[in-house]
Amino acid sequence: MRKYFGRKLLIYLLTFFLAVTIDWLIPRFMPGNPVANMLARVSVNSTAASVMQEYYTHLFGLDLPLWQQYLNFWANLLRGDLGISAYLFPKPVTQVLMNAIPYDVALLLPAILLSWLAGNNFGAVAARSKWLDNTVSPIGYILTATPYMWLGILLAWFFGIILDVFPIAGAYSFSLSPTLSWKFIGDVLLHWFLPFFSLFMVQFGGWAIGMRNMIIYELEADYSHYLEALGAPRSLIRRYAFNNAVLPQLSGLALQLGVIVAGALVTEVVFSYPGIGYLLLAAIQNQDYFLIQGCFLFIIIGVLLANFVIDIVYVLVDPRTRRGMTGEAA
Amino acid sequence: MLQVENLTVYYQTLKGQVRALENASFTLADGEIMGLAGESGCGKTTLGHSLIHLSPPMTHIGGRVLLNGQELPLADMQKMDAYRFNEISIIPQYAMNAMNPIRKIGQMTEELLRAKKADVKTVMAALKDRLEMVKLPQEVLGLYPIELSGGMKQRMVMVLSTLLDPELLIADEITSALDVASQKAVSEMLVEFRDQHCCNSVIFITHDISILYQIADSILIMYAGQLAEKASTETIIHNPRHPYTRLLISALPEIGVRYSDKRLTGIPGKTPLLLNPPQGCRFRERCPLAFEKCAEVPPFVEIEPGHSVACWKEGSADA
Ligand SMILES: Nc1ncnc2c1ncn2[C@@H]1O[C@H](COP(=O)(O)OP(=O)(O)O)[C@@H](O)[C@H]1O
Ligand code: SF4
Ligand SMILES: [Mg+2]
User: Would the pTM of this model clear 0.90, i.e. be above it?
Assistant: First the structure.
């Protein structure tokens, strides 16, 4: 057991190192650089521009040889310093990210968890009711097959413009300033609903169909047939099938949770919702090396953590993995 | 006692009916272990399943089955539940995968017993002795199926299936997946189960006749969905009457010698497809004795007490 997790941990650390290195490299391969981009936004005469260019290049450490930049990057990273954002200069990247993360969590955590719960229960019921299966499964397939962008825009158009019941941009109204008042909370909830609901819908369809298919598969498994031959009640057979079917869904859930911090890029773009996804787009458009690095760092950490959690959960709930572990050690 | 009368069961498929069991009639005495043998695909599993779990695509076309004089509601899935496990039980062909992979074996057993409204306490106590009989340690109850070897799983399912001391046990190819040494051990354990009244009568399905020499009281030979011959093991071995049985027996190596490699394949020709089987005796194409009359289905008649044959060359007409 110890050996198993020891080895896993090593693999995760190695992956982390490689992923972060790539994360550092990629923005630097993009044409242009953050300083040029910053200066393009202000109009100054050319002498001032070259002074400023030199000043900022030095400030961001971009005048150093690449290998040194890379070492500095790791040294700062280990101190928890992700640098300064060029796009939102002079805010530190960590602060920019910390401001965005609560929006992602508030949006994605309920969307993922609720759609998982509802989708799985729904799929399980659909698996045993012909009537429900015939009506709901097609809807589920349509939902999962719909390009998310399309669904998001459709929802925004219908609820935001036609019915005019929900705002379609931002996390709260520009006219309000963040306070702990009912008015503000209500306003935040209103802005939150459409992005949440659109995410919930697509994921719900996916979970429901996955569960339905898994249960039907499990009901055809040998252990189900054996119980049927012994005249066990349907309830017991269904419960076993559900327990088996939920395992792959569980790892799917963990993977979804892992990308929470990555935000739902498309959702946040469609609804101009200020999470990490939205931030990432802005960072790329502005060639903000440090902000891009920061966003991807969170994505990497999220995915790796989620995978690690799956490994642990599987060992806890699925005896077959445990068997694999002892087999590996032997 | 089990009486099967003219039992006919087909598979309903998109291509049509697969006539896997045609007009089967035989009886099984109390405590009798009857070997059911024949080539792969001849309908052994179909016969076994129709006695306990006749579910689609299997369809009950005709005939009836009486257990201790009481007719079984074969085609009524709900009513049959009362007989399943309690009166009739099965060790399925897929015994290796028969247990829920994510439940500990003991827990699964308890849940099953409770769901069947059995006396959980008494049965779980009896379970301990049964495990001893099949040489499994008590600890298996705390293990998951995957932690057992193939042979252990086979024996565990044997114990599970017989927990409620069924009147009839259907053991489907329980030795086929095992090595020669375990084959012998498992079949002997089954005889022990019968002797200790853990089950009453047994239908022991196999495609390997030689294993039956040691344990079966009687043998029923099937060919392509039809019954060919039933008699005591002695008679089947030393005095078979059906041409198919004779070929089978002569194709086997001497009794008592290693037999496991030689299966029921030493006869030239192929078994007919049961989707569109030939009229009359289905063995006709391969039968060295076939004549015109064989275009009609030969009746399965008792030519002497306890010995039935379905062949026009045998029985009353001309022997
Ligand atoms: N689910 C099924 N659907 C259609 N045909 C089947 C099915 N199961 C078995 N059969 C057919 O029924 C015949 C008898 O099969 P089976 O009883 O499994 O034979 P055995 O156990 O003697 O090997 C075979 O011809 C097989 O192809
Ligand atoms: S009935 Fe005819 S074909 Fe069938 S076994 Fe007898 S002789 Fe052969
Ligand atoms: Mg079979």
Answer: no
Residues whose CB is less than 8 angstroms from the CB of residue A313 and which lie 6 or more positions away in sequence, other chains included: A250, A251, A254
State the Rg of chain A over Cα: 25
CB of B290 within 6 A of ligand 2: the answer is: yes
What is the tens place of the pLDDT at every residue in B280-292? 899 988 888 888 8
Residues with CB under 6 Å of ligand 1 are: B 11, 13, 18, 20, 38, 40-46, 57, 274
Q: Do B84 and A240 touch (CB under 8 A)?
A: no
**Sign of the dihedral defined by the CA atoms of residues B230, B231, B237, B243, in that order:** negative
Q: How far apart are the first and last CA of chain B?
A: 31
Domains within chain B, CATH numbers bracketed: 2-87+201-309 (3.40.50.300)
Which residues fall within 8 angstroms of residue A62, CB to CB, at 6 or more apart? A33, A34, A35, A69
Check if A227 contacts B (Cβ < 8 Å): yes
Looking at domain A99-329, which CATH architecture does it have? Orthogonal Bundle (1.10)
Cβ-in-10-Å burial (0-12, 13-18, 19+) of B84 comes to: buried
Interface pTM, i.e. ipTM: 0.90
3-state secondary structure of A298: helix
CA dist B58 and A322 (Å) reads 39
Q: Quick count: other Cβ atoms within 10 Å of Cβ A171?
A: 23
Answer whether residue B261 shows pLDDT above 80: no
Is the pLDDT at B260 greater than 50? The verdict is: no
**Nearest alpha-carbon partner for A227 in B78, B90, B303:** B90
